[in-house]
Amino acid sequence: VHFVESGGGSVQPGESLRLSCAASEIIYNIYIMEWYRQPPGKDRELVAFDRKFPDTKIGYADAVKGRFTISGDNYNYTVSLEMNSLKPEDTAVYYCVVRDSVRAFWGKGILVTVSE
């Protein structure tokens, strides 16, 4: 499975971006869709998740809560991340992840740079 990724770029603090990942083929039995990020020189971290099974739940890292919104569509195999009020510390490579019961499918990464 590959993803068509879009939405990255360079913005100034306070601006917004929307990241999207669309799977190239059907993914059966999706149970969770996630976004991770890896800031320069730091470890990868979970940003947001949209769980579909066995119950539905959406969650965010404290650093992005109230500013980012995840939206996972497990019928069209797409996941997006709306990012508002961006800060320099949001600068990172962002990765979409879709998991079924046994596998994790990762996007290649989308660069987001927030600076004056």
Task: Write up this protein.
Helix content is 0%, strand content 52%. It has no helices and eleven strands. It has strands at 3-6, 9-11, 17-23, 32-38, 45-51, 57-60, 68-73, 78-83, 92-99, 104-106, 110-114. Strands 2, 4, 5, 6, 9, 10 and 11 form a seven-stranded mixed beta sheet that branches. The protein has a four-stranded antiparallel beta sheet with strand order 1-3-8-7, with no helix packed on it. A hairpin with a 4-residue loop joins strand 7 and strand 8 (78-83). The N and C termini lie far apart (37 Å). The model has no long low-confidence stretch (mean pLDDT 96).
Largest sheet: 7 strands, mixed
Mean pLDDT, all residues: 96
Percent in helix:
under 10%
Query: Structural class given helices, strands, pairing?
Result: mainly beta
SSE topology string? EEEEEEEEEEE
What does the overall shape look like?
Answer: globular
Secondary structure: number of strands = 11
Instruction: State the helix count.
Output: 0
Strand content: over 45%
Terminal CA distance: 37 Å
Low-confidence stretches: none
Using the CA coordinates, give the radius of gyration: 14 Å
